[in-house]
């Protein structure tokens, strides 16, 4: 038996089996660690998976780091390249961080994210608070977004409120904080945020509400803008000055609570009166009517891509001529206001010409007579009762009727009558926004005779973008301004000559006097004789006159009845000017041209095809119409136009009760139409007519538009013949005593000699030129003339 080797004590202890309790403890600890760590690991893994999932397709923040590039602007240019307007999909002017005053930065921080410079893009406490509020409400009611998150949402993501968007926003917020500095993020926010009325960014909002650049903002103004972010339209000072001022005070209180301003400064500014700039001053476009028309042309030519901007639209508008047109219209309307005592202060409790104050429920966009209910100098408002509703006039927006800038209490007394219209729907308990409608409106359109390019386009006194352009969009009765088309057709059809004698009432304004007299066509149109025009229309045929008026440029519907001779069918100033341009150009018809070119990145965009020019009447026929219309200026209803000291032709127009006043006329270079009237067809008042109400604006404009242009006479075609005639008979003059020289189309001059004084008056048929023939169908050559 081999010798056994003894074990040491240590070896004996080590070789003993371990107690079962220790093994169990180890296992428990391992299991516990797994139980504790597994959810954490799972949660981390879940977060990583969620982040990875929602990170797919995320926009890169590098585009913001490399440069802020919002949608491009589109420039609307005048014919000389001057900018008429910058058009944005989102109206925005980007400014540098240094151009924003500190008071504005602090106001927005206090209102939206006071700890912006302390957190890393996410405000976890605010997010939890918003989550609790939303759970209590059972839906999304409150946001916990930081300024960084708002930049992400507005610039990189869509604004929808979903959990997916919130997760993506959180991911991008952290990335944005890692890529940009705090100042850069805040600058993006200030340039991108929506602040109401289509204005994006602090610069455009400052210009719109206060008429100044952002760098000039004062603390109360900055606080008001910062207060708009939560609900721009609800807190708009133009819609609800009370809510706007309450919100401003809240922002100032937040600035005080956060230590951004002192108590003394807070006390100084918390009750500062609201001062808004007039909207027309903020909108600085020279011709908003042309801009609106250019945008429509761009939409037609470029389609949906027009909304992204980047285009350059060149119009035919001449800045100098356009400015003269706007000035002429405004000065003319101001002269009307002086004639009719439409200047503040307004104290009259009744105006016969306006009628009685309205009773009942008013509708939007209709004009009513109301009475002043109250005024508020602090808010700058006049409350006006229109029937069952009390509306509000913001006096800062009514510079036309308050040129001296009177306070509301000095502008109008309680109980005074004013005319106004409701501008937009309103909610119960609110006061609808009103616009004063005290005086008439006006339109002016000027065309280049040769090219038909629109040189000037004025559709209102106010020059508000998006407003009603009465030059192109409003149709009104032209009155006697339509008569040239009646006489023009009769000349064209060889039915009359300037010397044709017409039988008209001897006393047109006295219905008891039934006697008649003879009057030449030239005298009839110069004096705007209604009976003579109806007589010519009867002989020519209303159907034929309407068809011919359409042929020479009138596009609106024209009825075939006797009222056509008196201009009872409505037309626009633009088409009336275009029709007169046919006479001025020698008979050529061409569509007015407002947009010359559209380009993008230097490449032309194809415009809608323009109807080809065509000839509607011979040059000698057009010249003879011009010759007749020169008589209107020489000795007729437009004698004031002689002050231009150059050859011009035109026609006045006044409708029944003087609801519309017109003058349409032309030189060898420019044709211009001027209309004046109330939108709701209120009579212009006693003594108002085309010669009094519209002609002065036409003269003022034409004088400015022709400055520096040589004086030129209308070219007389060689086919025009002249003859010495007896003005009492329209026949060839027997002697030179009292004879006048008259112009005729070739072959239409009279061939008969006027009878001796003692031979008696000739038969009316003898006054008709021997060579005159009818061109309208169905009338025999030998049929006795209707005149």
Description:
- By secondary structure, the protein is α+β, with helices and mostly antiparallel strands.
- Mean pLDDT is 86; it is low at 44-57, 280-284 and 761-787.
- It is built from 23 helices and 23 strands.
- The protein is 36% helix and 15% strand.
- Strand 1 and strand 2 form a beta hairpin.
- A 5-stranded mixed β-sheet has the order 2-1-5-16-17. It has a 5-stranded mixed beta barrel with strand order 6-7-8-10-9. Strands 12-11-21-20-19 form a 5-stranded antiparallel β-sheet, with helices on both faces.
- It starts with 8 loop residues before the first helix and ends in a 43-residue tail after the last strand.
- Helix 18 crosses helix 22.
Percent in helix: 25-40%
What share of the residues does DSSP label as strand, in percent? 5-15%
Low-confidence stretches: 44-57, 280-284, 761-787
Question: Can you count the beta strands?
Answer: 23
**Biggest sheet: strand arrangement:** 2-1-5-16-17
The global form is elongated
Average pLDDT number = 86
Content-based structural category: alpha+beta
Tally of helical segments? 23
Distance, first to last CA: 166 Å
Integer-rounded radius of gyration? 39 Å
| Quaternary assembly | single chain
Q: Let me know the largest β-sheet.
A: 5 strands, mixed
């Amino acid at each position: 038996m081999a010798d056994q080797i003894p074990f040491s004590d240590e070896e004996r202890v080590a070789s003993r089996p371990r107690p079962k309790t220790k093994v169990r403890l180890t296992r428990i600890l391992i299991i516990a660690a797994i139980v504790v760590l597994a959810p954490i690991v799972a949660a981390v893994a879940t977060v990583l998976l969620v982040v990875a999932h929602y990170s797919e397709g995320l926009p890169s923040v590098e585009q913001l780091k490399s440069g802020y590039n919002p949608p491009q602007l589109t420039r609307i240019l005048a014919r000389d390249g001057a900018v008429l307007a910058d058009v944005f999909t989102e109206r925005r002017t980007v400014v540098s961080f240094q151009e924003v005053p500190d008071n504005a930065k602090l106001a927005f921080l206090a209102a939206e994210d006071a700890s912006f410079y302390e957190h890393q893009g996410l405000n976890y406490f605010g997010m939890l608070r918003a989550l609790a509020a939303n759970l209590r409400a059972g839906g999304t009611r409150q946001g916990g977004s930081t300024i960084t998150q708002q930049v992400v949402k507005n610039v990189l993501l869509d604004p929808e409120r979903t959990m997916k968007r919130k997760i993506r926003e959180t991911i991008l917020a952290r990335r944005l904080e890692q890529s940009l500095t705090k100042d850069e993020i805040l600058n993006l926010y200030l340039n991108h945020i929506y602040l109401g009325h289509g204005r994006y960014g602090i610069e455009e909002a400052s210009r719109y509400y206060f008429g100044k650049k952002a760098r000039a903002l004062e603390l109360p103004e900055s606080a008001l803008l910062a207060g708009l972010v939560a609900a721009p339209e609800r807190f708009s000072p133009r819609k609800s000055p009370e809510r706007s001022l309450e919100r401003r005070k809240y922002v100032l209180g937040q600035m005080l609570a956060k230590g951004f301003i002192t108590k003394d400064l807070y006390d100084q500014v918390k009750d500062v009166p609201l001062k808004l700039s007039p909207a027309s001053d903020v909108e600085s476009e020279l011709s908003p009517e042309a801009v609106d028309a250019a945008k429509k042309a761009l939409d037609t030519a470029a389609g949906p891509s027009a909304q992204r901007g980047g285009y350059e639209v060149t119009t035919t508008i001449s800045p100098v001529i356009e400015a003269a047109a706007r000035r002429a219209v405004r000065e003319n309307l101001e002269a009307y206001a002086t004639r009719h005592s439409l200047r503040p202060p307004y104290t009259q409790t009744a105006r016969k010409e306006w009628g009685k104050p309205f009773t009942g429920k008013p509708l939007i966009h209709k004009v009513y007579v109301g009475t002043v209910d109250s005024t508020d100098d602090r808010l700058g408002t006049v409350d006006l009762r229109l029937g069952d509703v009390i509306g509000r006039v913001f006096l800062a927006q009514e510079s036309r009727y308050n040129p001296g800038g009177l306070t509301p209490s000095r502008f109008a007394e309680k109980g005074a009558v004013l005319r106004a219209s409701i501008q937009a729907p309103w909610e119960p308990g609110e006061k609808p926004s009103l616009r004063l409608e005290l005086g008439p409106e006006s339109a002016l359109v000027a065309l280049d005779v040769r090219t038909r390019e629109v040189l000037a386009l004025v559709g209102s006194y106010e020059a508000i973008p998006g407003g009603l352009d009465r030059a192109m969009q409003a149709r009104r009765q032209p009155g006697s301004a339509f008569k040239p088309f009646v006489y023009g057709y009769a000349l064209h059809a060889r039915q009359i000559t300037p010397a044709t004698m017409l039988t008209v009432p001897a006393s047109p304004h006295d219905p008891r006097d039934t006697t008649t007299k003879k009057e030449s066509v030239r005298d009839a149109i110069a004096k705007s004789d209604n009976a003579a025009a109806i007589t010519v229309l009867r002989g020519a045929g209303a159907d034929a006159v309407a068809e011919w008026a359409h042929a020479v440029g009138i596009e609106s519907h024209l009825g075939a009845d006797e009222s056509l001779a008196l201009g009872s069918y409505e037309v626009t100033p633009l088409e009336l000017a275009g029709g007169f341009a046919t006479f001025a150009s020698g008979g050529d018809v061409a569509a007015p041209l407002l947009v010359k070119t559209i380009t993008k990145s230097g490449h032309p965009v194809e415009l809608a095809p323009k109807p080809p020019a065509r000839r509607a009447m011979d040059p000698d026929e057009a010249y003879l119409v011009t010759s007749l219309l020169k008589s209107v200026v020489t000795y007729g209803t437009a004698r004031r136009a002689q002050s231009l000291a150059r050859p011009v032709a035109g026609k006045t127009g006044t409708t029944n009760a003087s609801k519309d006043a017109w003058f349409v006329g032309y030189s060898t270079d420019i044709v211009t139409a001027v209309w004046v009237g109330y939108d709701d067809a209120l009579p212009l008042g006693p003594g108002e007519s085309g010669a009094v109400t519209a002609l002065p604006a036409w003269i003022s404009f034409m004088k400015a538009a022709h400055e520096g242009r040589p004086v030129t006479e209308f070219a007389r075609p060689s086919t025009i013949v002249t003859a010495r005639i007896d003005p009492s008979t329209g026949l060839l003059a027997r002697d030179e005593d009292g004879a006048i020289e008259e112009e005729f189309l070739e072959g239409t001059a009279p061939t008969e000699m006027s009878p001796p004084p003692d031979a008696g008056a000739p038969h009316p048929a003898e006054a008709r030129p021997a060579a005159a023939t009818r061109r309208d169908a169905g009338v025999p050559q030998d049929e006795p003339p209707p005149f």
